[in-house]
Amino acid sequence: MLNKTKAAFNTFLTLGVHRGRTPEVNRQIFVINLFSIVGLCIVSALALSAYIRQEFVLAVVLTASSIAMYISHRLVEVTKPFTGYRVAGNFLLYCLMLLMAFLVVTGGRENTGPLWIFLVPPVALFFGGLKKGLRDIGLFTSVIFILLFLLPDTIALTQYSYGFKSRLLLSFLTLTFLAGFYEYSRSESYKRMKQLSDEFERQARSDSLTKLPNRRSMREHLDYEFSRSQRAKQTMSVMLCDIDHFKSINDEHGHDGGDYTLIELSQLFRDTLRKQDIVARWGGEEFIFLLPETNQHDAYILAEKLRKRVENYGFKYKGTPFTLTVSIGIAEVEHHLSVDKAISLADHFMYQAKREGRNKTLPIF
Ligand SMILES: Nc1nc2c(ncn2[C@@H]2O[C@H](COP(=O)(O)OP(=O)(O)OP(=O)(O)O)[C@@H](O)[C@H]2O)c(=O)[nH]1
């Protein structure tokens, strides 16, 4: 029984929360649901007590509000999948504001109704963010000001002293300022954290020297493209490319000269490839190419184009020109051949190209 209640409560709170959404949006949806259920319980209890005291107008308004809170919870799910939470948040906020205005006009129970208006600033800022939240609070403050100070006595359903009204508004504005400042600091820290986490994520996936995707990132691309090509029954190819005699570049131009060569070569590869092709740094002076929708014949044409461009490229480090060549191995990822097997095959051909004199692409198609 307890477990069932817990599960139902959990389902209520997580309605509309999806993995595909950002944590910020999921948190907002969670709070909308939490606010709906807490509001629903409190307002229903107040409605019941108003019925018992035979204050029927208040009881009906509170019942309507609790129904509105339940509707807002359902809106998270039934309106557009990715914007429904905004509709639900707005609906909930405007219903809350209407209820607060009603409590201010009527005084609620023993003229304590206006005390509830302090709920508005945190809810408005949380649901709408800083800008929209402040706009909504501004609108609400104007309405409350009119109701408290400008409504003719003949229409007002209750009376408050001038001191109470002015202090109520002043404390409401103070709370708005503090809640606004809190929301501002919270969203700034969230933005900063998001920037840092995106930066860490980018760094974890790219090679710090060449800025090409690293081995880990390439593995993900390979797995994704392999399953995509399997589904679409398309071919894809992989190529491994190793710089010839790279050790001698390091020996002649120093380690920095070697690094310059790797950076320059990476740019040359990037400039030569089509948009959907991916090149990554696979190891020291070894690069891997992923060529979606490309058979081994087309891969060979591309490999030769790359090889010739490298051979004819004018490398120059600290004023000293030098030339460079690469050896390339190709393998088509056939349906019965796993990506790992294709990479081993490409590796095998690349070393064969080295043995056969370097500056070569194998196999020849
Ligand atoms: N500057 C620099 N050198 C690197 C980097 N990673 C690997 N190397 C160097 O690459 C060289 C690779 O040497 P070898 O494995 O003997 O291969 P090679 O000289 O290219 O000869 P072949 O592959 O047989 O043509 C070594 O000197 C490594 O120190 C790097 O990030 N920067």
Task: Summarize the structure in words.
Helices cover 67% and strands 10% of the residues. It has ten helices and seven strands. It has a five-stranded mixed beta sheet with strand order 2-3-1-6-7, with helices on both faces. It has a two-stranded antiparallel ribbon with strand order 4-5. Strand 2 and strand 3 (286-292) form a beta hairpin. Helix 2 packs parallel to helix 4, helix 4 (84-106) runs parallel beside helix 5 (120-150) and helix 8 packs across helix 9 (296-312). The longest helix is centred in the middle third of the chain and has 44 residues, at 162-205. Bound molecules: guanosine-5'-triphosphate (GTP). Residues 209, 242-247, 250, 255, 258-259, 262, 284-285, 354, 358 line the site of guanosine-5'-triphosphate. The site of guanosine-5'-triphosphate (GTP) has 16 residues, from strand 1 and helix 8.
Report low-confidence residues grouped into runs of 5 or more. Answer: none
What is the overall shape? elongated
Ligands bound, unique: guanosine-5'-triphosphate
| Strand/helix succession | HHHHHHHEHEEHEEEHE
Indicate the structural class. alpha+beta
Head-to-tail CA distance between termini: 70 Å
Largest β sheet strand count, sense and barrel closure: 5 strands, mixed
Count of folded domains: 2
CA radius of gyration: 33 Å
Residue fraction in strands: 5-15%
Please bin the fraction of helical residues: 55-70%
Average pLDDT number = 90
Number of strands: 7
**Cross-sheet strand order for the largest sheet:** 2-3-1-6-7
